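Posting for a labmate who doesn't have an account.
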Amino acid sequence: MDFKLSEEDLELKQMARDLADKRIYPIALEMDEKEETPEELIKECAELGYFGFTVPEEYGGLGMSATAFMGVLEEICAASAGFGIMLSVHNSLTCEILKLFGSEELKQQYLPQMAAGEKIGSYCITEPNAGTDVGSLTTTAVLDGDEWVINGTKTYVTNAQYAGVFIVFAKTHPEEKRHGISCFVVDAGTKGMTIGKAERKCGIKASDTREVNFDDVRVPKDNLLGHERDGFRMAVTILNSGRIGVSFQAIGIAQAAFDEALKYSKERKQFNQPISNFQAIQFKLADMATKIDSGRLLAYRAATLKDAGEPCHREASMAKLFCSEMANFVCNEAVQIHGGYGYIKEYPVERYFRDARVTELYEGTSEAQRMVISRDLLRE
């Protein structure tokens, strides 16, 4: 397969890099310390169309490919992985599931506002006692006349405070476990819905993460996505998009950490010469660069398959597994090259080191990715 980006994709990637360099990177440390994303940055990116990047043009989006969006996402995450995951969850999960499984009425109702950044999307599947084991979720949805009544608690909900639209997975047929899950669109502010306090995280602090509670939350019958019992199948399908997104988030973090380490190695002197003259440092840089390029190729392969409408379940998991572990390796080496300075907040590699850790956890842990890959291999 040919992974060469088109001129248009490269141009979009360069525009995102310019935005990241001029607008995001200068305030990234402040965003991390305040644990928030400025509203003006969200508005600026909305005006550029970043919240509707892959939304079809007929619904007000840019209608770009996943491959093009992932190049943009890498550049944004290199500046702020916390802000980048807001864009990724909004585009790769919430807009994507509406685009693939929403009725025409739901698409017309939500996608134009989401593409314009007027309503940010959030994805509610994880629960306090149901992470990888989706079949154990306890949130329920019961049909009462022309409304669904939702009860339960979701945790680790990205964009919760900013969101105008929530995609919520709940059991409509609890006795059927994972096969009894359905999916719903819920508007922010619906009676009975409460947003919890912000989680205090190790990294990606600019990303808003909270618990969301549903207490007899009523939504219209037509807010069901797809059909009853389709939830698990839909979640597995959408996870491919989410995992490709996290792969590029990891690549962005790793590339930024590598760039800082390379620059530092040329500037830092010990024993009357730059430390880049030492083979120990040179070999670290060689390994870092090789792993980053390898991860980028795996991730673009998965994105290209997705754009072609071909199966990419294994490839998305391979990319997510490799890229997340690669990012942690690269960031660890970047801190090591910086020595004691790498442990100080004034140096960006300290933040990249913290941000990289979560890429091995969400959208399926590394262990879950190995499970997906091995099962697919054994099925052949």
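Reply:
Got it, the structure tokens are right above this. The first helix runs from residue 7 to 34.
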